[in-house]
Specification:
The protein is an alpha/beta fold and 250 residues long. Helices cover 37% and strands 28% of the residues. The chain has 9 helices and 12 strands. The strands form 3 sheets. The protein has a 6-stranded mixed beta sheet, sandwiched between helices. Helix 3 crosses helix 4, helix 3 packs parallel to helix 5 and helix 5 runs parallel beside helix 6. The longest helix is centred in the C-terminal third of the chain and has 17 residues.
């Protein structure tokens, strides 16, 4: 589904990623962990096509096709979804309006309001949100938990084939974290054989709910370790300093 091959990326003249390689197959859940400034969110933005980043070497292939030069909107239409760490508010656009427009762009055809309302109502109930949520302006006045649950609703309705969640657990209390994680698990259970998922996070706490099979540690723009859940447990016990080069530690 996603193949990143020897990716070197800069933002302006600043090196961000330094030879990053990663392959994710349909149905898999991969997690990229790392300290602040390691390049995690930048990596998500590069895959999504953010023009602030320049690929100097390597390739990003999606479903076998190099998308390194593809603009953001074309990647989204092709089925790549990015849930932002801090989703932006859009005044004057209701949740249901936004979802209808986004779904129409994803499918390449008009979508009825009735279809969107029906699907949205189902997910509002699953995620513990009041029906009035559908008429609120997108992310305006939303709590952190409401913003992240709204991202899960978008993920469910848009049916991407590659879902990237950038620090979805940030700013969530224990209850909101559980609800968001359970919502993500439910989406994945419906699309287990067709959707690949990449979760970016600092901490292990959301992983207890998601139970990924692939963990990657990103430090200074390089994946320095890969493994299973035991790798996240090691980070929880010992931190990220153990993965830094000795000369950097000293």
């Amino acid at each position: 589904m996603l193949e990143v091959d020897d990716l070197w990326v800069e933002a302006g003249a600043t090196p961000i990623l330094r030879g990053l390689s990663l392959t994710i197959y349909p149905g898999e859940l991969h997690v990229v962990m790392g300290p602040n400034g390691s390049g995690k969110s930048s990596f998500a933005n590069v895959v999504m096509g953010n023009p602030a980043y320049q690929i100097r070497r390597g390739a990003v292939r999606y479903q076998g096709v190099d998308i390194s030069q593809l603009p953001v909107d074309e990647r989204a239409k092709a089925g790549i979804f990015l849930a932002f760490q801090d989703p932006q508010a859009i005044s004057g656009v209701s949740v249901v309006q936004f979802l209808r427009q986004a779904l129409a762009a994803r499918r390449g055809e008009e979508v009825s309001v009735l279809e969107v309302r029906f699907a949205l109502q189902e997910w509002l109930e699953r995620l513990g949100l009041d029906p009035s949520f559908a008429q609120r302006h997108l992310n305006e006045g939303f709590s952190g938990g409401e913003r992240k649950r709204n991202e899960v609703i978008q993920l469910a309705l848009l049916e991407p084939t590659l879902a990237i969640l950038d620090e979805t657990d940030s700013g969530l209390d224990v209850d909101a974290l559980r609800i968001v994680a359970e919502g993500l698990n439910l989406v994945r259970s419906h699309r287990r054989d067709t959707m690949a998922t990449l979760v970016i996070t600092h901490y292990q706490r959301i992983l207890a709910y998601l139970q990924p099979s692939h963990i990657h540690i990103l430090v200074d723009g390089v994946i320095v370790a890969s493994g299973g859940p035991e790798l996240a447990e090691r980070v929880e016990r010992e931190g990220y300093q153990q993965f830094r080069p000795r000369e950097a530690v000293s």
